[in-house]
């Protein structure tokens, strides 16, 4: 069996760019393909279309091994073809497979006689691997079942730490025909053995050794991705549900999460109470599983509850504001943080979106700030009414309240005790539980009693 040398990556989002950069870094000849000529032109100029720490540096060093094109011709030469296109949710939560379908149909005519593995990295409904294989059969004159196999190889990277997550993963999951999985494992050998030199800026973590390699059927690999995300989403909602009761009985979710997390069966991660999850994965994948269940007349009440708790959190923050301010009509409310989490400019399913929409609906005058996501917001959130502030300090001036919606480090570092003095009313809804010190302000956090309560006051 030959050794894979050439790789094609279809799609230049978080997953595609990370995969292309990583495979070029570990030594392969990579072609990145996207149907969007503007994105390809940007990448050819050395610009990266998304904000992801370290990505620009990783791609910049690779001009020799990494090329960008809108043409599918590179498929002919490729030994391994990665499909990394988006699967955005439809109105009922069912993932939209249009991009996967068109990627498979477009690449198929270029398949040739040598062994070529088609790897699905997009998060897709269980059964999509077989569907892609059928599309390849239908659209390729050279299709040969023994040479052209589909493998599911889900991606577990988190935005903001994408490079580190993909260079030093916990596990590599590969599902499909054993021969095809072997071939893909050979491609990944430098990653599995960790023999590559870590790129500048993304060092190997001290305790890290190597990933677990999990070989499964196609269907199990597809399910593993959904189940992993749904479980993490569930953990966050669980912390939020317990947190709500903590507030009412005088317990503190921060202490409770720490306390339960030491149980090795539970673990500390993803128990942070707050505004709940956002982003492109947790909402979409929990909905995706529920809609898969629906197709089989199978209810998934645990996942539905996790989703309900998550969206209730966004309303609870507004309720807290109303408890203090009575009416929001004409009140100046500042929202700090727009991205769904720190270190990204991704706005998909960001809690701040729902907060801003609800606040304006209730008659508030909203000012918002984000360290990196504001340019993107001016395009993608043009339907919302808010004033974009140049910086966090400006955003706070004469505000009736501030909601911390994203836990950017910049917001942790603000000189809060000075800044609250510039507010009209020093009321902070710290929806991410990031403030630690007592402040001359009313501070509300999530899942714990109003921490540093000061009597109501309005500065005139
Ligand atoms: C997630 C998965 O972690 C990743 O494995 C998968 O491949 C894609 O989906 P991502 O969406 O980039 O990654 O972000 P993640 O860091 O998981 O955070 C998701 C959301 O949960 C954020 O809005 C974050 O603020 C929130 N969160 C996270 C909590 O509210 N509490 C926590 O304890 C952890």
UniProtKB/TrEMBL annotation:
SUPFAM superfamilies: 6-phosphogluconate dehydrogenase C-terminal domain-like, NAD(P)-binding Rossmann-fold domains, UDP-glucose/GDP-mannose dehydrogenase C-terminal domain. It catalyses: UDP-alpha-D-glucose + 2 NAD(+) + H2O = UDP-alpha-D-glucuronate + 2 NADH + 3 H(+). It holds the Pfam family UDPG_MGDP_dh. It comes from the Bacteria. The keyword NAD applies. One of its GO terms (molecular function) is oxidoreductase activity. Residues 334-437 form the UDP-glucose/GDP-mannose dehydrogenase C-terminal domain. Transmembrane segments: none annotated. InterPro entries: 6-PGluconate_DH-like_C_sf, NAD(P)-bd_dom_sf, UDP-Glc/GDP-Man, UDP-Glc/GDP-Man_DH_C, UDP-Glc/GDP-Man_DH_C_sf, UDP-Glc/GDP-Man_DH_dimer, UDP-Glc/GDP-Man_DH_N, UDPglc_DH_bac. Its EC number is 1.1.1.22. Pathway: Nucleotide-sugar biosynthesis; UDP-alpha-D-glucuronate biosynthesis; UDP-alpha-D-glucuronate from UDP-alpha-D-glucose: step 1/1. Keywords: NAD, Oxidoreductase. The keyword Secreted does not apply. Belongs to the UDP-glucose/GDP-mannose dehydrogenase family. This is UDP-glucose 6-dehydrogenase. It comes from Deinococcus oregonensis.
């Amino acid at each position: 069996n030959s050794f894979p040398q050439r790789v094609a990556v279809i799609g230049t989002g978080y997953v595609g760019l990370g995969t292309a950069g990583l495979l070029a870094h570990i030594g392969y000849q990579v072609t990145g393909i996207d149907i969007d000529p503007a994105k390809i032109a940007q990448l050819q100029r050395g610009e990266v279309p998304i904000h992801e720490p370290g990505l620009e540096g990783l791609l910049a060093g690779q001009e020799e091994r990494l090329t960008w094109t809108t043409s599918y011709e590179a498929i002919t030469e490729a030994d391994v073809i990665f499909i990394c296109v988006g699967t955005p949710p439809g109105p009922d939560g069912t993932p939209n497979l249009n991009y996967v379908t068109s990627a498979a149909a477009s690449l198929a005519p270029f398949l040739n006689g040598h062994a070529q593995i088609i790897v699905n990295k997009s998060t897709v409904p269980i059964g999509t691997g077989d569907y892609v294989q059928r599309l390849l059969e239908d659209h390729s004159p050279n299709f040969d079942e023994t040479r052209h196999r589909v493998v599911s190889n889900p991606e577990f990277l988190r935005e903001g730490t994408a490079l580190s997550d993909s260079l030093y993963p916990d596990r590599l999951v590969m599902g499909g025909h054993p021969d095809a999985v072997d071939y893909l494992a050979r491609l990944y050998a430098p990653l599995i053995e960790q023999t590559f030199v870590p790129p500048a800026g993304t060092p190997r973590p001290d305790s890290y050794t190597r990933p677990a390699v999990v070989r499964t059927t196609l269907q199990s690999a597809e399910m593993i991705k959904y189940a992993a995300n749904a479980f993490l989403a569930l953990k966050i909602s669980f912390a939020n549900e317990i947190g709500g009761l903590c507030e009412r009985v005088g317990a503190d979710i921060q202490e409770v999460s720490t306390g339960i997390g030491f149980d090795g069966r539970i673990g500390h991660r993803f128990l942070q109470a707050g505004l709940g999850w956002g982003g492109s994965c947790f909402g979409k994948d929990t909905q995706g599983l529920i809609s898969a269940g629906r197709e089989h007349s199978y209810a998934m009440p645990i996942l539905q509850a996790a989703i309900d708790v998550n969206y209730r959190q966004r309303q609870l923050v507004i309720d807290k504001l109303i408890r203090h301010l009575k009416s929001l009509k004409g009140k100046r409310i500042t929202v700090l943080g727009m991205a769904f989490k720190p270190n990204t400019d991704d706005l998909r399913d960001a809690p701040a979106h729902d907060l801003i929409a609800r606040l304006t609906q209730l008659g508030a005058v909203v000012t918002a700030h984000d360290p990196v996501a504001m340019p993107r917001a001016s395009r993608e959130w043009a339907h919302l009414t808010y004033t974009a502030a140049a910086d966090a300090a400006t955003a706070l001036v004469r505000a009736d309240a501030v909601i911390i919606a994203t836990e950017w480090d910049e917001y942790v570092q603000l000189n809060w005790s000075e800044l609250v003095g510039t507010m009209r009313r020093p009321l902070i809804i710290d929806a991410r539980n990031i403030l630690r010190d007592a402040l001359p302000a009313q501070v509300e956090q999530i899942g714990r009693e109003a921490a540093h309560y000061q009597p109501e006051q309005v500065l005139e």
